[in-house]
Amino acid sequence: MTERTPILDILTHVFLILGILVTGFPIYVALVAATLTPEQVNGLPMPLFFGDQFLVNIQEAWSRADLGLQLFNSAVQAIGITVGKVAISIISAFAIVYFDFRFKMTAFWIIFMSLMLPIEVRIVPTYEVAANALTPFLWLGELLRLDDLASWITGEKVRFDIKVSLLNSYAGLIFPLIASATATFLFRQFFMTIPNEMTEAAKIDGAGPMRFLLDILLPLSRTNIAALCVILFIYGWNQYLWPLLVTTDPSYSTVVIGIAKLMPQPEAVPEWNLAMTAALIAMAPPVLVVVFLQRLFVRGLVESEK
Amino acid sequence: MRRVTFDGHWLPYLLLFPQLLILVWFFFWPAGQALYQAFTLSSPFGGYAEWVGFENFVDMVTQPEYHKAIRVTVVFSLATTALSLGLGLLFALFADRVLRATDFYRTLLIWPYAVAPAIAGALWSFTLDPHSGVVAFALKQLFNWGWNPELSSFDAMVLVVFAAAWKQVAYNFVFFLAGLQSIPRAVIESAAMDGAGPLRRVRDIILPLLSPTTFFLVVLNIVYAFFDTFGIIHVTTGGGPGDATTILVYKVFQDGFIGLDLSASAAQSIILMIVVMGLTIFQFRFLERRVHYAD
Fold first, then answer.
1. Which residues contact A251 (CB under 8 A, 6 or more apart)?
2. Is A284 near chain B, with CB under 8 Å?
3. What is the CATH number of the domain that holds B194?
4. Interface confidence: ipTM more than 0.85
């Protein structure tokens, strides 16, 4: 720094270490609880040093909450959302930046408007669409009197009443969440910085648009894609409201939902040791991603909010 | 400057199709439905919905429960934003001072960002559990304070604010640190040569130069407190005791899925959409200005 301030330097370290300890305190308590027996956890006060029940608790929590399956479901959801969002937004941004077409601005505004419709403000109707994915088409059919038309053609009474439910399926966990205005804008911004000369050179060499996308744009976007993947993986893994609504069948439940179900219920002896063991297991994958891919993570975080 | 473009009559439409399909299907159609439900009253036994104009909105905004939810949301968002912004800034100011160890401290401070809100809720529920939690025990022994978020509205609010702010400190820290690192060293050094001590430099130089970052973070933190904290509330207090921690988003969920009152839930959804629109427009207008600031 600019001047020698030994006292302030020591204070700085003391304060930062204090911050780390306070931040880490809930994790420490959870780790301790994960190594204790139920009697010890509910004792007053709970011991503040590690016990020897860690493996027992892991085994118990694993079988009780079916963690193996739930971790798999979470991984499918997180990876599905990440790959889906990246793929969809790259091709949308490519279309918007590299083509001139009539409804370009319309498309751009539709994507922009979706920023103002987070899932939390349209919970009930979105759930209804997931419960029967064909709702919009049935409505369209009714509007166009397709059933009357069909009745007239076939000479019999026809009613269209088909149901395709996305509840309790991987498609239901993933598809409604993979549209992304933020990612589209991120790639659009990035594509705009690629010099025109590069596109011209590719065109002169005879590359078509798809060739240009695959062989030039994608390799150039590698770092951006990687940084975005880190952020989106965390986003996908940590989803709560949507999986809570669309998975009633425990075999499609994600691990974050599973933890909520292990939380102590009123009128029952709390099993905090199991709840905390499972919570630690459930948060491990995204936390490890942040710690080990820190530079990509920070880059992705800062870029995706621009 | 004009971009060089490709020819392709149907290709751009094909490329945009997946995104637009999902947006229309899962965003705009449900939003339209919410709008429709907000202006109609459907009979619980099926049949046609009756057009009622603004009646659902009037019912909603005159309800004492709704006023309570607004107050709770305001208190919760302000407390969460103030706490997480303040701590994030403090940590960033200190971490920026220790040049060699910045990466080390950053690693140990940013990981809570990766914890799901629902899991953060579970961790804090246990840490601050009134029966066997260590904090409750210490408060009882040291100050004879009967901490109990299951009974006390104040304690419940403290619990959800802690859990929400804990997760968000990491986020603010990353942005403040990036902001601090982009302030030219020469500015700081010349102030030091003119005799400004560390505190004076923070107050008169660093904070004013950070203000674009701060404004931007205030908006994002309010959006976070409004919309991304559903999991925390659902796992820790379930909106209780009573409705002491029922924020607006939680009330939409409660009225829609537990109360099964579609019209009331839809009217609230529409009000929230207007809030998001306001915040988004504010954020974009502000970002426009930030570009000028940087020039």
1. A66, A69, A168
2. no
3. 1.10.3720.10
4. yes
